[in-house]
Amino acid sequence: MKKVLIIHAHPEKKSFCSALKDQAVAHFQTAGAEVKVSDLYNMGFNPVGDKHDFLELSNPDFFKYQAEQTNAFQKDLFTPEVKAEMEKFLWCDTLIFTFPLWWFGVPAIMKGWVDRVFAMGFSYGAGKGVYDSGTFKDKISFAVLTTGGPEIAYGPNGKNGNLETILYPVHHGMFYFVGMQTKNPFISFSPARLADEERKSELTRFTEYLNQVKNSANLF
Ligand code: FAD
What we know:
By secondary structure, the chain is an alpha/beta fold. It is 37% helix and 14% strand. It has helices at residues 16-30, 40-43, 65-75, 80-91, 108-117, 163-166, 168-176, 196-212, and strands at 3-8, 34-39, 94-100, 140-146, 181-182, 186-188. Strands 1, 2, 3, 4, 5 and 6 form a 6-stranded parallel beta sheet that branches. Helix 1 runs parallel beside helix 8. The site of flavin-adenine dinucleotide has 20 residues, from helix 1 and helix 8. Flavin-adenine dinucleotide is lined by residues 12, 14-17, 19, 100-104, 146-149, 191-192, 196, 199-200.
């Protein structure tokens, strides 16, 4: 974990989720790593995957997003916004998503980052494999998230269901799909309902998590 890229999706820089992101940055920098952050709200990142991703279209009469992604990868036709994120992703050996759980998933701005950056041709397809044959199998990935619901609501008989299932689209459908080694997530449940001291304990627990995540078993 020498080159760490954090994709951060929280609209408030003083939020607890942003504090987790800041702590991850400090942790890896102290350990001697280089860290880059794509703070998507701060960047005003456009999450909408569309024709504007490309400098030129191969078929202006019928827009097929994946075909245009493949063509753009082969002919260097991605716009600078998309290309800059792809270059950061290529650069990193560790990819971290930091986000609040929204509607049992990642916020739209983060989903859009994946739609646009994990493009066909660049990260899968057009001769590139997926999962164990995926392009990015040397990279490590993990999610760091906060929730509104308490831990019990995500427990064995909890009303929200279990988070392993809820996070499957991220772990399996995004990280592992493009070949990355996927670690267990760090989840801070209901930080808004905790006392300040309890939130400080969560930050300590996060440091412990970061210390061991590299050597922990892969989920996928
Ligand atoms: P915040 O409210 O920003 O932070 C909590 C407190 O921590 C604040 O008082 C802040 O001042 C304090 N704090 C910040 N930094 C520090 C620090 N360094 N030390 C100590 N305290 C600090 N929840 C679910 O469980 N499931 C869902 O499906 C879901 N869907 C949602 C959909 C939408 C559209 C929205 C807006 C919310 C949804 N939520 C859901 C709730 C959401 O997940 C939580 O509100 C969010 O994860 C809480 O984290 P936060 O960082 O935003 O908390």
